[in-house]
Amino acid sequence: MRTINQVTLLGHATKDPETMTGYDEYCKLTMTTNSGWGEEKKAHHHSISIFDPKKTEFIMRYIKKGMIVFVQGELQYQEGKDGKWWTSIVVGKYNGAVELCEKAPKKIEEDNDEGDRRESEENNDDQAIPF
Q1: Domains, the chain, ranges and CATH?
Q2: Band of the pLDDT at 104, cuts 50, 70, 90?
Q3: In degrees, to the nearest 5, what angle opens at C-alpha 79 toward C-alphas 60 and 15?
Q4: What is the pLDDT of residue 83?
């Protein structure tokens, strides 16, 4: 019988990502997700370790505190020094994904003919939507 160990999260980065001590190509990301509704709403904090140099480069360059992030990885358990068990999500080279789920900020361009500033046409796609 085949088994699956996969975690999918969509939440906010709680702080800027950090490279792991001594390993520039690996990083740690913390994020929070919510469950419940109204007064029953509860925040869940997650620790994510990324073990892929290309994903680490992307994360360190683009993801900042408060941004919405999609993470897919593997659940792992570790016993801490105090005897408590900790869970973490591990994103490897072949078994995970990290995506930024926010719209890039609009670019401002100089119009050389008129000298006025205007928004880039490629970022105006949403204005054509009727709702």
Answers
A1: 7-106 (2.40.50.140)
A2: low
A3: 25
A4: 83
- How many beta carbons lie within 10 A of that of residue 119, not counting itself? 12
Neighbours of 105 (CB within 10 A): 7
Residue 8, pLDDT > 60, answer yes
Tokens read off for 55: 């994903």
| pLDDT band at 115; cut points 50, 70, 90 | very low
